Amino acid sequence: MRVGQGGNGPGPLTPDGSAVELYEITQVHGEDELINAAIDPGSSILELGCGTGRITRPLLALGHQVLAVDESADMVARVTETETVCSTIGDLRLHRQFDLVLMMSFLINVADDAERLRLLQTCAHHVRPGGAVILQQQTPRMLRGPAVMVNEQRRMEISDVEELPGNRQAATLTYTIDGKTWSQRILTQNLSEDDLAAQLAEVGLQRAGYLTPDKTWVRAQPV
């Protein structure tokens, strides 16, 4: 899967231009608590697109069982606390089902309808009856630039934003942390509620609600 158009900066980069070292030093911002509140204690979780384990480790610490999946061998190599699989999400077919299938990092906003369907087919294949799928999605207001966001840990700049046909957007994201700078060109597609509902239905899932008022966290269940 190639959701971006490339990146640059120190250390190894994944096929979509994500910087492994940047993922490794990015902090948790409450995502683990949000997910934990939405599922039963000790749930089995399939985490699709685990990166370097930023959310994997807190979920393990909360008592869940996590199988972490990423297409980047450089990412997966940094997740040593649990079972991992190096695979593209669309190609993943395990002979196991899980209480929760988790796909974050706005992967659902890949700007390719066929690829998005493959991602959702993987989610549907691996969620048990009565289980849940949680997706983190981008909303249209997220990529508005130029913009600069600065806190004690990092500086992030959104620049060169392009509005493209089909509710697609392109932008350059530049991160600076501790004197190191990484830049990534991304291409995304914003999804209407009807668009996402139709693709969920195509794979046998239905939206069951949202975890947050801004609708960036979607909960789905098998029909």
Structural description of this entry:
- It is a single chain.
- The chain has 223 residues and is α/β, with parallel strands linked by helices.
- The chain has a domain at 20-139 and 190-222: 3-Layer(aba) Sandwich (Rossmann fold).
- It is 22% helix and 36% strand.
- The protein contains six helices and twelve strands.
- The strands form two sheets. The protein has a seven-stranded mixed sheet with strand order 4-3-2-5-6-12-11. The chain has a five-stranded antiparallel sheet with strand order 1-10-9-8-7, with no helix packed on it.
- Strand 11 and strand 12 form a beta hairpin.
- It is globular.
- It starts with a strand and ends with a strand.
- This is Methyltransferase family protein.
- Residues 45-131 form the Methyltransferase domain.
- It comes from Kribbella rubisoli.
- InterPro entries: Methyltransf_25, SAM-dependent_MTases_sf.
What's the gist of this structure?
The protein has about 220 residues and is an alpha/beta fold. The chain contains 6 helices and 12 strands. Helices cover about 20% and strands about 35% of the residues.
